[in-house]
Amino acid sequence: MRAFWALYVHELRGLWVYLVGGALVSLAFNLYLATRRGVWGFDDIAGWATMFMALLTFLALVLGAWVVQREWDNGTVYQLLALPVGGCAIVGAKFAAAATLVLVPMLMTFTSLMGTYWPTGVSFWAPVHHFGVHYEGSPPEATFAYFSFGAFLPVALLYSFWGVFLRIVSIWVRSAWRLFTGAAILGIWMYSWRLLDFFGRSYTGTLTVPWPGGLLVRGDDVTLYFVSLPLVPVVVALAAALVLFWFTGRLVERHVEV
Amino acid sequence: MVEARGVGKRFGRVWALRDVSLTVPRGVICGLLGVNGAGKSTLLRILAGVQRPTQGEVRIGGHRPGRVTKARVAFVPESDHLYRWMDVQDALNFTATFFEDFNHGRARELLRLMQLEPSSSISSLSRGFRARLKLVLALARDADLVLLDEPLSGIDPISRDRIVEGILRGYRPLRSTVLIATHLVGEVETMLDRVVFLHNGRVVLDEGAEALRAARGLSVEAIYREVLA
After folding, report:
1. How far apart are CA B54 and CA A36, in angstroms?
2. Per-residue H/E/C for A180-238
3. Where are the beta strands (DSSP E) in chain A?
4. A112 vs A91: CA distance, rounded Å
5. What is the count of residue pairs from A and B with beta carbons less than 8 Å apart?
6. ipTM for this model
């Protein structure tokens, strides 16, 4: 764990220009959106914010691959692979750094959107509301429902990891890396739409966990809504992610070479 | 300290190393000498654990290259592996974070010897000074094995003298094993206890430097030219 944190801090220090740059772009974008309040409708503002967050999730895929690739491009991979640390620490630090680059502007956008509409009735009792409706997710009387931080967060995390994973596997595979990476990116994009659909559904009669799904609009009232995720697929997905993570760590430790 | 048995490394259809067997005891400064493409760097990378042999086996202090050996091996690759966004002090701190054998006192001495300022940005250092820093990071550790890949290549004569002095001052007393891969034989000859000539991925000569000079009545550099011409 110590090695992971040391590498994570090291990664962030190396990426600080991009981290601060991303935060500033997000700040400027959100300040602009905030000034549009009263000029544009909520759906316009939330729509732009949602699109921004959706773009950030795709950026996560690129950034995940890039934080690995730059080690090879800069020749610093020698230093990285010669460190007496486990492959999982290296992969974890890369993944966490790429995710941080995306999550910071994403979180800023979400907070800004909530902050902009808070005075007009964003309900911070939404979790209670969620439990009150027995995990049934989005109520039918809603005018609009926007996926937001809650839905994009796991997608961004998944993409960050996928970017790191693909790049490492493609370095390992070497000769077939372009074909492999192209096919995998196409696959994950197709899968992502299924994933968003998964977050938007309501589940009844199964064991579920509450998850912040997005923003709901009922007339002038904007509410953070929670969706119900069925427990079994979530646990299976987390277990699969851990196995994949361990596998990637082993790849770095045993098979990836300069 | 270092044991290689029948080591081979293939890249695609090309064998960079073929059937290399080598034993280097503790405290020896050994020169891996050969022309470009002889397989010197590949052998060092395998010993450092950043590449894996296609065939054969390597042991460092009885262990296969891995996390345990990496903690005891200081590897300086030929390529510029320093993070450009760091300053000199950052680079020292980064190395010290991961290697328990990092000796801060020796690092300060070596910085003075190499005329490096801790606050200097790595991106502003010339190639010669970056080579000096790479060496400081390796020699400041109490590593059992130091692997130096072309430490003098492309470096001006003054920097070369500093680097050679650094190796001699930094490591002779500690009885660490040092493997230096180079084709600049004349520059390192004075500090070598043993020489291994590599040609087309194979060991063509492996002897003590002094015994070799006495037997042939020539300098190692002259013998190198004779053997590998």
Report:
1. 63
2. HHHHHHHHHHHHHHHHHHHHHCCCCCCCEEEEEEEEEEECCEEEEEEEEEEHHHHHHHH
3. 144-147, 208-218, 221-230
4. 32
5. 59
6. 0.86
Counted residue by residue, chain A has a size of 258
Q: What is the pTM for the complete model shown?
A: 0.82
Q: Worst-scoring range by mean pLDDT, A144-148, B65-69, B73-77?
A: A144-148
State the angle between helix axes of A42-74 and A87-117 in degrees (0 to 180), rounded to the nearest 10: 160
Best A2, A83, A175, A250 member to test B by mutation, with max B CBs in 10 Å, is A83
Asked if A76 is an interface residue toward chain B (Cβ–Cβ < 8 A), one would say yes
Distance CA B178, CA B185 (A): 15
Chain B residues whose beta carbon lies within 8 Å of the beta carbon of residue A78? 50, 75, 77, 79, 81
Domains of chain B: 1-228 (3.40.50.300)
H/E stretch holding B76 reads strand B73-76
* Residue B208 CB partners (closer than 8 Å, separation 6+): B193, B194, B195
Residues 6+ apart with CB under 8 A from A175: none
Burial A38-52 (b: 16+ CB within 10 A, else e): eeeebeebbebbbeb
The answer, for B11 touching chain A at a CB cutoff of 8 Å, is no
**Percent helix, strand and coil across chain A, each rounded to 5?**
75, 10, 15
pLDDT in tens, B182-196: 888 888 888 889 999
Q: Nearest Cα to A54, choosing from A222, A214, A228? A: A214
